[in-house]
């Protein structure tokens, strides 16, 4: 009979080969991060997911009908400098959350199918990603710990925080690729190191994707416009459709490292040095095109500012479940040409959306599409929750 674990509880593993599996009511993927005692992977090869289904001592294998793939872990084959194997659950639909379905259950079994431990991950709410459990070394043996830690920064933030390089790559596609039977299958080819911005073909960004702010010929952009837009959901009744009266506000938050230096929004339309300028407040979201625009002169941004985060907040407290067609788009302000666009599909149960950021990487600027929700009615309240998005 299996032992039921509670959050934070640990237990000893007596089997050398174990299988970590899930019981889910929502479509999700299982992946693994093999980390050292410092909490980082040694290389990208220590990240096991559907496009790279094998790693040192760990491989993905097909799950039972209707369930995610399982992780087969040969503890004796895990390299000596790997201290923990962390099992991560990621919902297929990043706009959904674990709070919308029954709590997932993580199981640890031996290779004969005998379930050794079960952990029902209760208490999840708005998270779409959770570190379910970890297998870790202790005094020459292995133990399992029930973690159940949600991750607000998004999938790309989670893996980069663990040392995985996802620079300029799309976030993993939601539909898992077929899992090969043999563990020696090679990983999928990496995406190009940089996405090329070109005025003839705007880039369509996916969540977590990064791109260097250079245009045709490798010339760095100097002035950009971040256009943000949305439409209120139209409710259909017996007397026709009516759009909700939703007041969303776009803002640009300037950070020096993790320290907030300034907020540009409807209440302060320019930064002190005028390098960042806001177009003004749109109270409804009705109409075509950008609802609010923030213009940034990248050449004039103070050297201390390392990132500018673009956030949309709901002043009256309605959630983004009442908003559709939310997007942000990058425009070369010198020639008024769109270069990249990031569109959010479906609403989320949050009152604020962290849309994107531009940040310094050495002497260049880069853009990252984020698309993660937080609960805040004003940019000032949102600022306290942006820590997970400030890393690279």
Automatic annotation (TrEMBL):
Biased composition (Pro residues): 171-183
InterPro entries according to UniProt: Stress/Tellurium_Resist, TerD
Domain TerD residues, every copy: 1-162, 203-376
Region (Disordered): 166-185
Name the UniProt record assigns to this protein: TerD family protein
Protein species of origin: Rhodococcus kronopolitis
